[in-house]
Design a protein that fits this description.
By secondary structure, the protein is of the alpha/beta class. Helix content is 48%, strand content 17%. The protein is globular and about 110 Å long.
Length: 745
């Protein structure tokens, strides 16, 4: 059944026509995405559907008795309410009903009422009617539902008594969003609901909306979110509306086919019209030369037919978008930033605990985590705005950092766009206007005050200034916030071709998938690095959760990394993560070995020496034997075979390992052991060494598979399980070292 029907809607903003005769229908239960560029009229149409304004022309009809819930981008008029009051906005009638029931309970307990049977009977009947309504409309589940949705959106119960006006903009948006989800209206209108939500809350909202029984219409530029939630897409473009089934990706595919077909129809019609105009000209010429009125009548008839022809509009196949042309003037050294055991706390709260990471030239890394996990704190440390309480943070050579803050208020909001840009960039007016035009600030737009800019326009202006500086390292805090989809895609394309280093905080999964070659996750003060994009990260997290859900010591411990198979696959492809959640060390990804290439993640050689332990190359035979012998009585045939395989590796392999350790800065290059091994290698033995490595790794794989079977059989024997797992870990470590040597040959 139709819940919304729009017929020839027109809406003006002053003299500007925003909606130009749009027509569409929405069915009950639809999940509809309302998309379009900034300024295309999305919020205008949303307010019309929320009955907050009336169309200038046309009709907008809603199904009778439809309950509408609307969540605006910026909540208004609720500052003096408590958080709990706002959460319960959708239950106002039930709250009034509950209060009436309490008043009647007091009246019925009055001795005077008890002494009057007729009055008591009337009160009991009214009370029964109110109680029936209260129960029917879910009054007894009201408090539980408020707590459930508030918890899903990370609104603490301890904050229920806080004044709504004291919350930040993001917190206010979450509370208002929760209030409408709690109310469960028939028609739910959401304007940018994912703004200010972290990934975990966005995924919770996705599941909630997919299961929502009512109709949902939402404005969002989060393409990943749209693909997972909506069943229909409605686009506003040039004042017109186009609709198609499916999410954003499906709609864009259909749109491309529609535009190409329309362009072919346009070209064919233009050919026909050109021939008709030529025929009209010839007929009129013949009429003048021959004095025959018949030719003029035919020409007039053909002209009328031409005027009656419904012309196909020329489609715009490629629209202008912001040109984020990021070109650094200089490149950095290989190591851009190094963090070693960094700690940061505020009062009694530990924000960062032993964070170690390496950012190298050319890396495109996404930093993700829950709100409050320490992402912005880490950025402040990198920018030098705050100092770590422990650990070390160093920038590399020739680093020029460009920073885009998530929220930044203009110092002088009365300045025009042109004045602000000239002041910050230090350029003349002509050059400034040329640059601003590339960021879609044309004509009179450059004279608007920056205080009047929308969130997307202000972000575009700040990006224009950032790009103009030409830094070689970009720290971006939610760079896609408030940008429309076209601007997001333009930014993604530019950053993908950026010949520098990018570290971006982002909850935009589509952005992370297109840009990131690695993901850093901050959780409980710890930083975990994953190779690959968001999908690779998500697959890894799901694998960890599945292992944890299975229970059992060996499964939980395997969950700390990819598992052997995933680790080997990641090492061969140069993507994903290795054993223990550490980046796999391969020839294609040698950077992963510094500083976390060793088995002790995040501990540098310096810190290991500080603990009094002599550091040795992870792949050296002495270290492998030490690991194998550490098992004591648990030393099995599988472990012994692993040691035998290592012993079979010829001196050429030892030399290759020693050379690799010296080149990467690991080990002691001055040691006689390394020097003697380096001399024993030769170029002529590389092919033989690679073949022997492959044979050794094949034998190790068989042993590892046998250990995996033993682990499954020993689920109830914790002692044997622990012992077997240790043996498997030692053999896996040996395999990884051989694989790293093989990859570099």
């Amino acid at each position: 059944m139709i819940i919304i029907s729009a017929q020839q809607l027109k809406q003006y903003h002053g003299a500007h026509l925003v909606l130009d005769g749009i027509t569409f229908e929405i069915m009950e239960g639809d999940k509809v995405a309302l998309i379009g560029r900034n300024g295309s009229g999305k919020t205008t149409l949303m307010r019309l559907m929320a009955r907050l304004s009336q169309p200038d022309e046309g009709q907008l009809m809603l199904k009778k008795d439809t309950r509408v819930g609307y969540v605006a981008q910026v909540p208004e008029g609720l500052d003096d309410h408590s958080v709990l009051d706002v959460l319960g906005l959708g239950f106002q009638e039930l709250i009034v009903c509950r209060n009436q029931m309490k008043e009647m309970e007091q009246q019925m307990s009055d001795p005077a009422c008890i002494a009057d049977p007729e009055q008591l009977e009337r009160l009991l009947k009214r009370y029964a009617a109110l109680q029936e309504r209260f129960e029917r409309e879910g009054g007894y589940e009201m408090d539980a539902r408020i707590d459930q949705v508030a918890d899903g959106l990370d609104i603490a119960k301890a904050h229920y008594g806080w004044r709504f006006g004291s919350l930040s903009g993001g917190e206010q948006t979450r509370v208002v969003l929760a209030s409408q989800l709690i109310a469960s209206p028939d028609l739910l209108l959401l304007d940018e609901p994912t703004n200010h939500l972290d990934l975990e809350r966005v995924e919770w909202l996705e599941g909630f909306l997919r299961d929502y029984s009512g109709t949902v219409i939402l404005i969002s530029h989060d393409r990943y979110f749209l693909d997972r939630v909506v069943t229909r897409t409605l686009e506003l473009e040039d004042g017109e509306a186009q609709t198609a089934a499916g999410g954003y990706t499906e709609y864009m595919r259909v749109k491309e086919q529609r535009l190409l077909k329309q362009f072919e129809e346009f070209k064919e019609q233009q050919k026909v019209m050109k021939k008709m105009k030529e025929t009209i000209r010839q007929l009129e010429e013949w009429g003048r030369l021959g004095g025959n009125e018949k030719f003029f009548r035919r020409a007039a008839s053909m002209r009328k037919a031409l005027e009656r022809m419904e012309q196909v509009k020329r489609p715009v196949l490629e629209r202008r978008h912001a040109d984020f042309d990021v070109r650094p003037t200089d490149r950095t050294g290989k190591r851009v930033a190094v963090l070693e055991d960094v700690e940061k706390r505020y009062g009694d709260r530990d924000i960062l605990q032993g964070v170690s990471a390496l950012l190298e030239y050319g890396d495109k890394t996404a930093l993700i985590g829950r709100n409050g996990s320490g992402k912005t704190t880490l950025f402040k440390l990198l920018l030098g705005e705050e100092q770590p309480d422990a650990g070390k943070l160093e920038w590399g050579a020739r680093v020029d950092v460009g920073y885009l803050a998530q929220q930044e208020e203009p110092e002088n909001p009365k300045l025009s766009v042109l004045e602000h840009f000239r002041l910050e960039a230090g350029v003349e007016e002509g050059e400034a206007r040329g640059i601003l035009a590339r960021y879609l600030f044309y004509g009179a737009d450059v004279f608007r005050s920056i205080g009047q800019l929308s969130g997307g326009e202000w972000t575009r202006l700040r990006l224009a200034l950032l790009v103009h500086r030409k830094p070689n390292v970009l720290l971006l805090d939610e760079p896609t916030n408030h940008l429309d989809i076209a601007s997001r895609e333009a930014l993604e394309d530019s950053l993908a071709g950026f010949e520098g280093t990018v570290l971006a905080i982002s909850h935009d999964r589509y952005f992370v998938n297109r840009l990131a070659s690695g993901v850093w996750e901050l959780e409980n003060g710890k930083l975990t690095a994953y190779l690959g994009d968001y999908e690779a990260y998500r697959e890894k997290k799901l694998d960890l959760q599945a292992r944890a859900a299975q229970g059992g010591s060996w499964e939980n411990r395997a969950g700390a990394g990819n598992g052997l198979k995933n680790g080997r696959r990641a090492a061969e492809k140069g993507t994903g993560t290795g054993i223990d959640g550490k980046p796999a060390v391969t020839g294609a990804n040698k950077s992963a070995s510094e500083p976390w290439g060793s088995r002790e993640v995040g501990k540098s050689e310096k810190s290991r020496r500080a603990h009094g332990s002599e550091w040795k190359a992870p792949g050296s035979r002495e270290v492998q034997r030490t690991r194998l012998e550490a098992g004591g009585d648990g030393y099995s045939a599988a472990s012994a075979s692993g040691e035998t395989m290592l012993d079979q590796a010829p001196t050429e392999l030892d030399a290759g390992q020693a050379n690799k350790n010296v080149g990467s800065g690991h080990g002691d290059p001055s040691s006689s052991q390394n020097r003697s091994r380096s001399k024993s290698g030769g170029k002529g033995s590389n092919h033989k060494s690679a073949q022997q490595l492959e044979e050794a790794m094949a034998r190790m794989e068989v042993q590892i598979q046998e250990l995996d079977q033993q682990l499954e059989e020993l689920a109830n024997d914790s002692a044997a399980l622990e012992q077997t797992w240790n043996e498997r870990e030692r053999l896996s470590a040996a395999y990884d070292e051989l694989l790293a040597q093989w990859a570099e040959m």
